[in-house]
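Input record (one chain):
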Amino acid sequence: MCGVALKIYGILIAVLAAVGVFFGYMYYTDVTRPAKQLDEAAAEQDAVFEEIRQSFSQPRETRPAAPADPHTEAAQVPEETAPAQPKSAAVAWLMIPGTHIDYPVAQAKDNEFYLYRDINGKPNQRLGCPFLDYRCKSDFSGFNSIVYAHHMTKQRMFADIALYQDPDFMAQCPEGTLTTAEGAYTIRFFAYLTVPSDDAVYQAEFADETEKSAYLQYVLNQASYVYGVDEAEQKVLEDTESLHLLLLSTCTYEYQEARGVLVGVIR
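The corresponding structure, as predicted from the sequence alone:
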């Protein structure tokens, strides 16, 4: 009798051990290994990003002044120094002090390419890369420029956009910088929205000033809150002919296909 009990006990131990090994393997394959691969992809991409950052920060060499014309009183004035054109797919560098958002922005011929690829176009464990909507002007000179990035673990990519759900965070970090080949610009944020992925806020093309004004009013009406829009700022927003908006969009998970959108003005 004791022998039978010991045999059953041994079988149970073996079964439990096998179950433990199985679930340990599943945890490794489903959680531990993907997290490790993501960390490795992020580290590799950060190294590439650092090279791109330097290309945006280095000034372009000015053109030497032309020799003085003996028939004129002064030589020609050399061109103004400007940021160098980055040698990559990046069209801009985006940075928001007080957050982890400090990345280049790419652009492709569609809005799918950079979802799960790095800035060089290589698959990168679904980390992706911040990218400008293909419908928007690459120099951010259009009325509306929309930049997308994933909401990743460890506050990677655009995870910090969700922090702007709290108006107090907006008060702490109300500005960012956008550097393009043409120069560096300040972004003044003024609204945060939670919208579906197919919301009208993702409009990128406009027929006229009336349509632009209607769009801006839609943004203000849909916003979870509006920040810092005093009389002077209202005049800036109303001048749609000169206005350049920047929308930063990411997943925020309040419901299926929910998106958090941070809206600012490029100056």
